[in-house]
Specification:
The complex is a heterodimer of chains A (324) and B (579).
Chain A lengths: L2 H11 L10 H20 L3 H9 L2 H25 L5 H16 L5 H8 L4 H30 L10 H24 L1 H29 L1 H6 L2 H24 L4 H12 L3 H11 L6 H4 L1 H23 L2 H4 L7
Helix pairs in contact in A: 2-8, 2-9, 2-13, 4-5, 4-7, 4-11, 4-12, 5-7, 5-15, 6-7, 6-12, 6-15, 7-8, 7-12, 8-9, 8-13, 11-12, 11-15, 13-15
Chain B lengths: L25 H12 L3 E6 L5 E5 H19 L6 E5 L5 H11 L3 E4 L6 H11 L3 E5 L6 H4 L7 E5 L7 H14 L11 E2 H13 L16 E7 L7 E6 H15 L9 E4 L6 H13 L3 E4 L10 H6 L4 E4 L1 H8 L2 H5 L7 E4 L6 H11 L3 E6 L6 E4 L13 E2 L4 E5 L12 E6 L11 H7 E2 L2 E10 L5 E6 L4 E3 L2 E3 L1 H9 L4 E11 L3 E10 L6 H11 L8 E5 L12 H9 L7 H5 L1
Parallel strand pairs in B: 1-11, 3-4, 3-5, 4-8, 5-6, 6-7, 10-11, 10-12, 12-13, 13-14, 25-26
Antiparallel strand pairs in B: 1-2, 8-9, 14-15, 15-16, 17-18, 18-20, 19-20, 20-21, 22-23, 24-25
Helix pairs in contact in B: 1-2, 2-3, 2-7, 8-9, 11-13
The chains are: A mainly alpha (324), B alpha/beta (579).
């Protein structure tokens, strides 16, 4: 039998019924990684950072708007436009994953890309922190608001809002602990911060080398619409936020920062939420599709954007005073 | 007028003359501190990400003893042998520098940013027999060493004396991520090995006092190289007496503003620079202070963790540093609450920066003045006494300062003259350069080459460098004045002014400016100058540039501009006139 006919068969029948999309070991490891990443985020923060942010809220307000008004809405539009054409029992779990991906806060990897794009690193860190804290309220709110638009009432699959809130709270604990540790030992704090950045990249590598090869069958039969949603969410998110920032005449460095910060979501956090709240659901693997694919593709998307940003005429910008 | 009009402006309790210090040498001063402040933290090195390591007074004392024994009993150096040190601010710096002084050897501070030929010149000129160098910069040595008398090279990692795990992370980052650690191909001793050998010899029974038997006030402590703006770099011979006394003079001037055993001073200036060496390192160590050592203060964000994590009470720096901090939002929004005072030197502290600093931090900032040749402190604005911005203050105790004309006669108050100074901190001379020494130190008076004015109260204001002065048809033009006029013109960011030979007027004024976009035209600039300056001060020509040559600490280098004008083939029509 040729390869083409194998694929056809798989597409019709799906992967073997006993195939585990995420193994128990992978679940534990991924959640542990997210904890380390959140530790690192906290270890880089001081109470002064919050005080500074409150003093000058324009940047944060813009970030808040792009992060929680635009990203979930964009995810919602992509769900409606692309996913709902698929059979409902497949579309619903994928859509939940996509909406969740759009509703989580900004990821720490955005700071790395901001740095290489010659953006405003301080603003980036501040926006990440700010959106992470706001996520406690805004992520569940966005899920409820948009979820009920396309989820059929009385469907078997529901978004467990309460569990998601609890998960978010649990995941914020390491942020606070990181801050406290930093307060008492600058050395341990700096190590945690370094590890957070390192494991953020390791997370992607981990997905690439273990999860992708193990699930290649699943990935091959995944419809193109799911890939499109995963890629477009980041790409359009960066473009729209950058466009808005330019339109309201932010300093170019800050506009780049807002763009990257908005488009780059906290993929590991979304995956951790799925793993911790849908662990009993048979649909777990499908819900995980968009978060996992997004986490992989955002690296490529953000790299491409960074290269483009770096080509911008930086010399011209130096005379523009910073507005934020 | 009294020859010392400044004495009435000292703060209360400051004596105009201090007695000869009782310590025979710097080593005695350091040992006394180690005895008194034994368990207190002496040094903390803070990396930009907050990683840090610390040494207590007793640890620095023991480790520097190990270095001293290593140099004398393991390497076999003698009293007065020169030892070069080339490292940024780090915990190893005090350990090594104190060790060299305790060994009775002569410290040769070397800028780590030097090129191979600058290193070779300084090592060969000083006749250094040993070198302590930060491992990151050791790649330049293979071409340097054969041109010197250096027999022993000790390499020092930036993370020495850090907790082991942290040191490992820093080294791994340097080696595999930043790739800043070169492979060292020549014969060398790692610091750890050198310390081990020294300790072994010390335990076997060594009397460290023997090293210092002949080392008293007149003994040479350091060869501090200074280029000046012209000529080749030469070593100012600073004796133990020079450095001990200048430390005492400076501390007397600051009085109770430095509290014994209670200060934390942020040392962002490099310790190989004489200002940080005398004031921060020796001065605060004498007073039981804690030095926060910053290996690399640029970008200024590198200081953020240090200010967040330590109760900084004192800060020393140059205008560039204060200005940079005032442009950092994290600093202006949360100025260090523990800060008590700041001291500026090295270059002119702009009045606008001083005012903004006081406003933002609510603490005093005072400007002082000195030269490498004077160990370095000659004058300071007296904290707690009268402070005048845009002046370098009044002479420190036991120091005489005058402004003199070409013949060496004092000029009346308010008149510009060359600043000359006499006191126990003036160097012994330039190392092996009798001619230059005779030109610079005459009858005990150090001729600074700076043109200054003294007001009726004895406060001094630097007008300009003598050698930068432009002589137009017999009139003195001070570049600083013309530059200040140019930068006050809207549309001009920076300006530099030099003199060029001129067949009619002897010299003429040439201006270099960095302008905004759109730039004013040359005739607009000249019209503006004519409206604000006497005719002979107005530049003959204006050159628009993208930037101006600057030194490491941000001073505009007029000599580099002059060099481009006199270099052959510079393409500028004026070059021919010069030749």
């Amino acid at each position: 039998m040729g390869t083409a006919s194998t694929l056809l068969l798989l597409a019709v029948e799906g992967p073997p019924p006993d195939h585990e999309v995420v193994t128990d070991f992978e679940q534990v490891l991924l959640v542990a990684l997210v904890f380390i990443i959140m530790f690192g985020l906290g270890a880089g923060l001081t109470p002064r950072d919050f005080a500074s942010a409150i003093r000058r809220p324009q940047g944060l307000i813009i970030g808040w708007v792009t992060q929680f008004a635009i990203m979930p809405f964009l995810a919602f539009l992509l769900v409606i436009g692309l996913l709902l054409q698929l059979p409902e029992e497949y579309a619903m779990p994928v859509a939940i994953g996509a909406l969740l991906m759009g509703s989580v806060p900004a990821g720490t990897t955005s700071n790395v890309f901001t740095f290489f794009s010659k953006g405003n690193l301080a603003l980036s860190v501040m926006m990440t922190t700010n959106s992470t804290l706001w996520a406690l309220i805004m992520t569940p709110l966005a899920l409820v608001l948009y979820g009920q638009q396309f989820m059929p009432a009385g469907s078997e699959l529901q978004i467990p809002i309460q569990n998601i809130v609890v998960t978010l709270v649990i995941l914020l604990v390491p942020v606070v602990v990181g801050m406290v540790i930093r307060r008492y030992s600058a050395n341990i704090g700096a190590v945690l911060e370094l590890m957070g950045g390192f494991f953020g990249l390791f997370f992607i590598v981990f997905l690439l080398v273990t999860w992708v090869p193990r699930n290649w069958v699943l990935l091959v039969i995944t419809p193109w619409q799911v890939y499109a949603v995963s890629i477009l969410l980041g790409m359009l998110g960066i473009s729209i936020a950058y466009g808005i920032a330019k339109a309201i005449r932010l300093h170019p460095a800050n506009a780049r920062t807002v763009g990257l910060e908005t488009g780059i979501q906290n993929g590991p956090l979304a995956i951790a939420i799925v793993l911790l709240t849908f662990s009993d659901s048979p649909q777990l693997g499908v819900i995980l599709l968009v978060p996992a694919l997004y986490s992989l593709f955002i690296v490529l998307v953000a790299t491409a954007v960074t290269i483009r940003f770096r080509r911008a005429n930086l010399a011209e910008e130096q005379k523009i005073p910073s507005l934020l | 007028m009294s020859p010392h009009p400044w004495q009435q402006h000292y703060a209360d309790g400051i004596r105009p003359e201090i007695e000869r210090p009782t310590e025979r040498n710097l080593a005695e001063l350091l040992r006394a501190s180690a005895g008194e402040f034994h368990d207190d933290i002496a040094f903390t090195q803070v990396m930009p990400n907050g990683m840090n390591g610390s040494l207590r007074y007793r640890e620095v004392d023991e480790l520097s003893d190990d270095v001293a024994v290593y140099l004398r009993d393991v390497v076999g150096l003698d009293t007065g042998d020169r030892v070069a040190v080339q490292m940024p601010n780090c915990l190893s710096y005090p350990v090594v520098a104190f060790g060299i002084l305790k060994a009775g050897c002569v410290l040769v501070n070397t800028n780590p940013m030097y090129t191979a030929s600058e290193m070779a010149h300084q090592f060969a000129d000083s006749g250094a027999r040993a070198l302590f160098i930060i491992d990151m910069f050791a790649d330049r040595l293979p071409e340097v060493l054969p041109r010197t008398e250096i027999e022993t090279v000790v390499t020092v990692p930036i993370s020495a004396f850090f907790p082991p795990v942290i040191a490992g992370i820093i080294t791994a980052t340097q080696r595999y991520w930043q790739r800043t650690l070169p492979t060292i191909t020549f014969d060398h001793t790692p610091l750890r090995t050198a310390l081990g050998k020294g300790r072994e010899a010390r335990r076997a029974g060594v009397d460290l006092d023997v090293y210092l038997a002949e080392v008293d006030h007149d003994a040479l402590a350091a060869l501090q190289y200074t280029g000046g703006t012209t000529g080749v770099s030469k070593g100012a011979m600073l004796s133990h007496g020079n450095l001990v006394t200048n430390t005492r003079q400076t501390l007397e001037m600051v009085g109770t503003h430095i509290r014994r055993g209670e200060e934390t001073v942020l040392t962002a200036l490099p310790l190989y620079h004489i200002f940080a060496f005398t004031v921060n390192l020796v001065g605060f160590h004498t007073m039981g202070g804690r030095n926060i050592l910053i290996p690399s203060p640029r970008p200024p964000n590198n200081l953020k963790r240090a200010f967040e994590n330590y109760p900084v009470t004192w800060l020393t720096g140059v205008n560039t540093l204060f200005n940079a901090l005032l442009n950092e939002r994290w600093f202006t929004e949360h100025p260090p609450k523990t800060l008590r005072a700041a001291a500026a030197g090295g270059m002119a502290l702009h009045a606008s920066v001083a005012e903004e600093w006081r406003e933002v931090t609510d603490t005093p900032i005072v400007e002082g003045y000195g030269l490498t040749e004077s160990s370095p402190v000659l004058t300071f604005n007296p904290l707690g006494g009268t402070v005048k911005d845009s002046t370098i203050g009044i002479p420190v105790p036991s120091t005489e300062v005058r402004c003199v004309d070409e013949d060496g006669a004092p000029v009346p108050p308010g008149q510009p003259g060359e600043l000359v100074a006499r006191g126990p901190q003036i160097m012994q001379g330039y190392w092996q350069r009798l001619e230059e020494t005779a030109e610079t130190v005459k009858d005990g008076w150090l001729h600074t080459g700076d043109i200054a004015e003294m007001d009726d109260d004895g406060f001094l204001r630097i007008v300009d460098r003598k050698k930068d002065m432009v002589l137009v048809s017999g009139f003195n033009v001070f570049p600083n004045e013309v530059e200040a006029c140019l930068t006050s013109m809207p549309g001009i960011q920076e300006a530099a002014v030099i003199g060029l030979p001129d067949p009619k007027t002897g010299e003429s004024v040439r201006a270099y400016v960095v302008a905004d976009d759109p730039a004013p035209t040359e005739s607009e600039v000249l019209a503006y100058c004519r409206a604000h300056l006497a005719a002979y001060k107005v530049p003959r020509s204006v050159d628009f540039r993208d930037d101006l040559p600057k030194s490491l600490i941000g001073k505009v280098l007029r000599k580099d501009l002059r060099a481009t004008m006199t270099a052959p083939g510079s393409g500028d029509g004026l070059a021919e006139e010069v030749a």
